[in-house]
């Protein structure tokens, strides 16, 4: 189930908030070691609900239930009332926490962007747009709640297209939220985007840059060595 994606969004929103609203403390707070620890914490919190579901399933269901042939779907495997209640309460609290985190950080960054000037205003505006993007991703993450109802309606209308319907809704609600961050951050990176343009738009670059993607300066440095 979808647990780590909303927490990743909250973590990135907090990092942007610290960078804009507390720039003097950003280097001390957002260190590499603390980043590794925060990522470990996110994955530990994300794994706990699934581990709880598995432990409860093993403790309450007979061994014969593990030899049945069922469609590998979450609601088919974890079908008890406990799993349903646990999933609804857990995801509801999680998304409420992340929504409040993104909202509060966005409001603070928005106030900082209005009060800033010059280069600080540009940095604050970029952070504001980044957190707004996180809000859009959070809305896409929340589509997980309505995906089962959409599946039921579409499968009822077109039962012969069940695999296609389930696969499409999984792409939209499960894969798309995880795809947006690396895709957008990769495109916004100047080095990465220049290589992408060079690969897919050869006519936009002269022959010198096609042969040497790093430009003529790097070639001259290599010759000098």
Q: What labels describe this entry?
A:
225 residues, mainly alpha, 11 helices, 80% helix, globular, disordered C terminus
Overview of the structural elements:
This protein has 225 residues and is mainly α. It has eleven helices and no strands. It has helices at 4-21, 26-29, 32-60, 74-77, 81-115, 119-141, 143-157, 162-188, 190-200, 207-211, 216-224. Helix 1 (4-21) runs parallel beside helix 5, helix 5 packs antiparallel against helix 6 and helix 7 (143-157) runs antiparallel to helix 8. The longest helix has 35 residues, at 81-115. The model is unreliable at 213-225 (pLDDT under 50).
Topology, please?
Layout: H1 4-21, H2 26-29, H3 32-60, H4 74-77, H5 81-115, H6 119-141, H7 143-157, H8 162-188, H9 190-200, H10 207-211, H11 216-224
Brief overview:
Helices cover 80% and strands 0% of the residues.
The poorly predicted ranges are 213-225
Counting helices, strands and paired strands, the structural category is mainly alpha
Sketch the major β-sheet. Answer: none
State the share of residues found in helices, binned by percent: over 70%
Strand % is under 5%
Q: Give Rg in angstroms.
A: 23 Å
Shape: globular
* Count of beta strands: 0
> How do the SSEs run, as a string of H and E?
HHHHHHHHHHH
Mean pLDDT over all positions: 75
CA(first)-CA(last) distance: 53 Å
């Amino acid at each position: 189930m979808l647990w780590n994606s909303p927490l990743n969004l909250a973590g990135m929103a907090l990092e942007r908030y610290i960078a804009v609203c507390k720039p003097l403390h950003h280097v001390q707070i957002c260190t590499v070691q603390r980043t590794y620890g925060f990522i470990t914490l996110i994955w530990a919190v994300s794994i706990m609900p699934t581990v709880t579901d598995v432990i409860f399933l093993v403790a309450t269901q007979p061994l014969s239930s593990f030899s049945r042939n069922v469609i590998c779907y979450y609601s088919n495997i974890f079908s008890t009332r406990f799993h349903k209640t646990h999933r609804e309460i857990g995801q509801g609290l999680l998304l409420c926490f992340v929504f409040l985190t993104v909202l509060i950080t966005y409001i603070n960054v928005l106030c900082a962007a209005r009060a800033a000037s010059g280069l600080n205003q540009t940095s604050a505006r970029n952070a504001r747009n980044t957190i707004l993007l996180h809000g859009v991703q959070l809305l896409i993450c929340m589509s997980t709640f309505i995906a089962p109802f959409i599946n039921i309606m579409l499968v009822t209308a077109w039962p012969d297209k069940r695999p296609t319907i389930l696969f499409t809704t999984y792409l939209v609600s499960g894969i798309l939220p995880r795809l947006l961050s690396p895709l957008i951050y990769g495109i916004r990176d100047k080095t990465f985007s220049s290589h992408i343009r060079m690969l897919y738009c050869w006519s936009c670059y002269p022959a010198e840059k096609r042969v040497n993607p790093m430009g003529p300066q790097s070639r001259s440095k290599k010759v000098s060595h």
